């Protein structure tokens, strides 16, 4: 992939598609710098890494609408009163096509400017999350409106070492139907046909819009990974995004 | 976002103002056919559309229109009185162009019937007396309108 313009960035915060309410975004990871300089450092500072941290900031047009279960949510409805709450955060920089690189984590909503702007100007908002988990660089595994039990084709992400974990984030942007329910699993196998798939992460059954975040520690020798889901209810429909990564 | 639908919706809304004949297209095509007060909807003076105002497939887009108000210039007093009546707001006038767009009802419908998300009338510019080829003269004013829309709305 070459350099690209920031146009179709997909940003998700729990069940919220934050993309349409954002025109400025910053996804940041950093280590605190500890100064280990001594008299033996030959006149040069010796920095070492301390604690790592993640931060997400986003700002853009706001919307005070309230959505039904079958509609995608508006920004104010989801972020209104949840300061201090943990959100599942995902970013797909080059747009929402399955297979694209995606970053995801969990973050605590720390700061929010609910309304900003001058008279007659676009009503805007801004929001900041502080990461409560490490940042994971993975792939957007599924971009689907799920109506029946199924799975993704999967891909060869690689094996998980003993010091790594397989991570996954699932966003349900809408949940329509009568008593709809969906249970998502992340499965691995040693072949692309998934003839002997093993469940590695099993999320709890979802019956409404929302998001889930999970991981499983290595070592896992399997190198093919996919998402699988079981759906029930009458006329169920879930607009779903699934991200997976090994870190 | 349907630009034609937005232009036509603006013109339809202006048609509710008594004595105003709106045109949903640029003024230089309608100036010679204006009968009485005419308002032509044209593109913004500097920009017509700003597409990428937010990320994602349903991104926010801005549309800039200019309403060109043509008042027959028989004499200065009557021309300016008519123009002022059209550009006044609130209870001061019974035929306000601004209120027709921004305060048409209670609550107001600034979505123009659902073709956009919101609209703002910014002000009045370029008030001038204009002579056209037929020799007719008009008192003309430009009214910039900013419209907020979504790509998938």
Task: Describe what this molecule looks like in 3D.
- The complex is a heterodimer of chains A (247) and B (153).
- By secondary structure, chain A is mainly β.
- In chain A, 2% of the residues lie in helices and 56% in strands.
- Chain A is built from one helix and 13 strands.
- In chain A, a hairpin with a 2-residue loop joins strand 1 and strand 2.
- The chains are: A mainly beta (247), B alpha+beta (153).
Based on the model shown, name its key terms:
heterodimer, A: 247 residues, mainly beta, 13-stranded antiparallel beta sheet, 1 helix, 56% strand, flat, B: 153 residues, alpha+beta, seven-stranded mixed beta sheet, 7 strands, globular
Continuous helix count of chain A: 1
Tell me the number of strands of chain B: 7
Helix content of chain A: under 10%
Helix content of chain B: 10-25%
Give the CA-CA distance, first to last residue of chain B: 5 Å
What is the assembly state of the chains in this entry?
heterodimer
Radius of gyration of chain A: 20 Å
- Element pattern of chain B in H and E: HEEEEHHEEE
Number-wise, the strands of chain A total 13
Rounded mean pLDDT score of chain A: 94
Task: Give the rounded overall mean pLDDT of chain B.
Answer: 89
Briefly, what is this?
Chain A has 247 residues and is mostly beta strands. Chain A contains one helix and 13 strands; from the N terminus they run ββββαβββββββββ. In chain A, a hairpin with a 7-residue loop joins strand 6 and strand 7.
């Amino acid at each position: 992939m070459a350099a690209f313009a920031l146009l179709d960035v997909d940003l998700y915060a729990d069940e919220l598609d934050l993309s349409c309410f954002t025109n400025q975004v910053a996804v940041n990871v950093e280590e605190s710098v500890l100064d280990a300089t001594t008299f033996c450092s030959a006149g040069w500072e010796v920095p070492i890494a301390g604690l790592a941290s993640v931060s997400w900031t986003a700002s853009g047009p706001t919307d005070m609408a309230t959505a039904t279960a079958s509609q995608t949510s508006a920004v104010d409805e989801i972020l209104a009163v949840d300061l201090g709450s943990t959100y599942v955060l995902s970013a797909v920089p080059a747009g929402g096509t399955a297979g694209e690189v995606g970053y995801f984590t969990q973050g605590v909503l720390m700061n929010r400017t609910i309304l900003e702007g001058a008279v007659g100007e676009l009503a805007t908002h801004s929001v900041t999350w502080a990461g409560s988990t490490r940042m994971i660089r993975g792939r957007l595994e599924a971009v689907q409106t799920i109506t029946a039990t199924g799975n993704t084709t999967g891909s060869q992400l690689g094996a998980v070492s003993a010091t790594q974990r397989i991570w996954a984030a699932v966003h349900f942007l809408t949940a329509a139907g009568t008593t709809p329910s969906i249970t998502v699993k992340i499965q691995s196998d040693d072949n692309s046909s998934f003839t002997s798939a093993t469940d590695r992460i099993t999320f709890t059954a979802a019956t409404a819009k929302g998001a889930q975040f999970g991981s499983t520690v290595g070592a896992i020798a399997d190198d093919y990974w996919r998402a699988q889901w079981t759906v029930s209810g009458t006329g169920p429909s879930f607009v779903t995004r699934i991200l997976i990564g090994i870190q | 976002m349907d630009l034609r639908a937005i232009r036509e919706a603006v013109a339809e809304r202006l048609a509710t103002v008594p004595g105003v004949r709106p045109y949903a297209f640029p003024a230089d095509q309608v100036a010679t056919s204006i009968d009485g007060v005419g308002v032509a909807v044209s593109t913004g003076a500097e920009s017509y559309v700003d597409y990428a105002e937010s990320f994602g497939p349903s991104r926010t887009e801005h549309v800039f229109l200019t309403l060109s108000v043509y008042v027959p210039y028989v004499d200065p007093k009557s021309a300016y009185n008519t123009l002022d009546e059209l550009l006044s707001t609130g209870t001061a006038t019974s035929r306000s162009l601004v209120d027709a767009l921004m305060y048409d009802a209670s609550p107001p419908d600034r979505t123009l019937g659902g073709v956009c998300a919101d609209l703002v009338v910014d002000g009045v510019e370029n008030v001038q007396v204009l002579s056209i080829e037929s020799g007719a003269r008009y008192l003309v004013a430009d009214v910039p309108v900013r419209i907020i829309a979504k790509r998938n709305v």
